[in-house]
Amino acid sequence: LFPEDKAAYTCNTAMKWDDPPPRQDGSGAQLARVAVFGRHGARTLAFNIPCWPGSELSYTCETESFFGFANSRSGRRSPSFNRVRGKRGVLAGDSCLAGQLTDSGVKMLVNTGMQLRATYGTALDLPYIPKEPEVMFRSTDVPRVYESAAALAWGMFPGLTDADPADVMDITVVDERSDSMKPSDTVCPGLEEALDEFYESAEAKKRAEWGARLREIIGKTTGYSPLYLTNDPKQMYNLYTFPTECWVAHACPTVPSSPKAVPPEFDEGRMKSIQREAAYWVNDRYSSSRKLQRLAYGPFIEDLLEDLREDRRRLSVYMGHDFGPANSVMDPLQLT
């Protein structure tokens, strides 16, 4: 099996990805710019619903979420501060926030940043501190995502670790309701109607019916059988992402949870089937028609083309989620 054909591939237990392959075309072309599309690092569960009967999952997080602000009206920059969850945290354990970036997640992105600098730093003549317009970082407005962008930057730009506190990096973070980095019906209102058309299509109904037996097993294993006794295409997204996230939280060594045990029903083969269906209902549904691709991915592609027209840019980093922005480029170009 290729690594990506294994259920645990998403754990990234090696804490790094393979180095980018060397050029082999012999053209002698000079590298002018690089665009990086990334996903946030390993995280905790974003919900506290029991995954299955008998689950006693508990977390211990070394890395704390951090915040601060710059360029305030007072003309000063605030101190950074740790986000402490307090006594009403929803996850079992002492210190973890729901959905937060883990220590392993930080290390993943730092390692990736170091790999990217080793591969492209000299060719792009990257500075030691990222500055616009030569370097642009963009993130969705989610703490684990912009913290992942910062971790990638720490790996790529060693000067950030000992720079003057006033010499901070910039990360473009767009308001969620107008952010094109993931398919959004608030960015492109026609998307909602197009998705409704897809859910009524023969393709969607056939796919949902095909997975009925798999969902029956998921329902019995998780203890949520009544919810899984449906073939409604609109429900498939949640029905498949729930067990996928639960399995990652319990099984991946990159998530600081214990005990590391999953029901025998969720073995390697079945989890790959569940992950495959989750990928379809999360991302692949948008490639079911050119209309859906245009409405889901068009706004981000427009932003990307505008970025590519900035001739002073050498590096662009887009940090997001499983559902964007990488898919906005890979799906239309059939790179998946």
Automatic annotation (TrEMBL):
Keyword tags: Hydrolase
Claim: Hydrolase is one of the keywords in the record: yes
Gene Ontology MF term list: phosphatase activity
Record-linked InterPro entries: His_Pase_clade-2 (IPR000560), His_PPase_superfam (IPR029033), Histidine_acid_phosphatase (IPR050645)
Key word Glycosyltransferase present: no
Pfam family, one: His_Phos_2
Entries under CDD domains matching the protein: HP_HAP_like
Domain of life: Eukaryota
PANTHER family from the UniProt entry: 2-PHOSPHOXYLOSE PHOSPHATASE 1, ACID PHOSPHATASE-RELATED
Family classification: Belongs to the histidine acid phosphatase family.
The name this protein goes by in its record: Lysophosphatidic acid phosphatase type 6
Lineage of the organism: Eukaryota, Sar, Alveolata, Perkinsozoa, Perkinsea
